[in-house]
Amino acid sequence: APQLDASISTGQMIDSLETIALSIFLSLIIIMTVFGNLLVMVALCKDRHLRKKKTNYFIVSLAFADLLVALVVMPFAAIELTTGQWRYGEIFCLVRTSLDVLLTTASILHLCCIALDRYYAICCQPLVYRHKMTPMRVAVMLSGCWLIPTFISFLPIMQSWNAIGIEDIVKRRALAGGSNDTSCVFLVNRPYALICSAVAFYVPLGLMVLAYQRIYVTAMTHVRQIETLQRAGSAPQAPVGHSRMRIETKAAKTLAVIMGCFCLCWAPFFITNIVDPFIHYSVPWQLWTAWLWLGYINSGLNPFLYAFLNRAFRRAFLVILCCGDERYARQGSCSYGPTHRACSAASVNGTSMALR
Predict the structure, then answer these.
(1) Which residue has the higher pLDDT, 195 or 256?
(2) 235 pLDDT band (50/70/90 cuts)?
(3) Mean pLDDT, residues 241-264
């Protein structure tokens, strides 16, 4: 008996340590996501140069969506994961789930709009870009980023359209979790899984791949033209137009990295989302949880991608974090002394990816 009690006590201690470690890890993810996205929003509000670029309106709206994920979705998911119970009732379970679908879908739609903006900026002439991306069109695209997800989140989920035909399975899962008051079960039927995944991930992903493929082809054509001119000795220095194209291409690479991180984070979830209804909902909940939190982590990645890859954002971040000292904005990532102030052109250009 004493050995049995000691074994139980040891098991409980291990479980407690695992819960504490998990709570600390999830809390760090939430805090970093809130901090990073707030930093992006403040930078765009304080820096007039960032506000001049149309793409940055999509970026600040994306940051707002990611901030809401960290404030209204992730905390409840963390509490449910660490306690093993849902303590907020069935109605709020539906609201939380709807917000989850709404905000994550809004994120990828913002990335899709940013990719289209880059396509017009790089693959079209400047006059065509200004004609295509008018303030009214930008406003319409931003509205669509927030309104379209509503039709696959609050509308069907609050009406329980996602559970049509699988009501018995949902009830069994809820009872297995204890009761409707202590579990938040969200399962989707095949039509909802296909439609939701297509709208939230696969269609926007396809548009982004096409846009970046066209951008890559245009950039490579431009590079070959410059190399031909330089070999002929007629282009000792790149003209202004060529400089503009280089800046726009670097901006596209930055956004492609952001898009790639989103795909890596969310692709496992959306693949599982489609497969699960066709294999009788046999995917373990632990795998669902892992894929879901991998997706949440993406909401905290974007600000750090901007900080490391975008010189304009990095300078704005430095000014904010250094209490508005403009010296940091002028020096950017360069060191202080006179021997270090002049950074190499390659280094500066390598991070000077203005998101125009």
Answers:
(1) 195
(2) low
(3) 71
- Closest-CA residue to 296 (of 269, 274, 272): 269
Q: What are 88's two structure tokens? A: 């907020």
Q: What is the pLDDT of residues 175-226, one digit of tens each?
A: 876 554 567 889 999 999 999 999 999 999 999 889 888 887 887 777 777 7
Report the helix count and the strand count for the chain, using DSSP H and E.
16, 0
User: Which token pair is 330?
Assistant: 């002028």
Q: Please, what's the b/e burial string for 224-248 (b: 16 or more CB within 10 A of its CB; e: otherwise)? A: eeeeeeeeeeeeeeeeeebeebbbb
Q: How confident is the model at residue 233 (pLDDT cuts 50, 70, 90)?
A: low
CB 245 within 8 Å of CB 215:
no
Task: Give the integer Cα–Cα distance in Å for 243 and 345.
Answer: 13
Query: Which amino acid makes up residue 115?
Result: A
The DSSP line for 36-55 is HHHHHHHHHHH-HHHHT-TH
CATH code of domain 2-351: 1.20.1070.10
- Written as six digits, the tokens of 291 are 């894929």
| Separation of alpha carbons 125 and 34, rounded Å | 38
Query: Distance of CA 314 to CAs 63, 256, 337, Å?
Result: 16, 18, 20
Instruction: Name the percent of the chain in helix, strand, coil, to the closest 5.
Output: 80, 0, 20
Q: Let me know how long the chain is.
A: 356
Put simply, whether the predicted model's pTM sits higher than 0.85 gets the answer no
The answer to whether the CB of 321 falls within 8 A of the CB of 329 is no
Cα–Cα distance for residue pair 198/109, rounded to 1 Å: 12
Residue found under tokens 């000795």: 233
Q: Which amino acid is at 301?
A: L
126 burial level (CB within 10 Å; 0-12, 13-18, 19+)? exposed
Start-to-end CA distance of the chain, whole Å, equals 71
User: What is the crossing angle of helices 311-321 and 285-309, to 10°?
Assistant: 90
Q: What is the mean pLDDT of residues 333-349?
A: 37
The rounded distance, in Å, linking the Cα atoms of 315 and 175 is 54
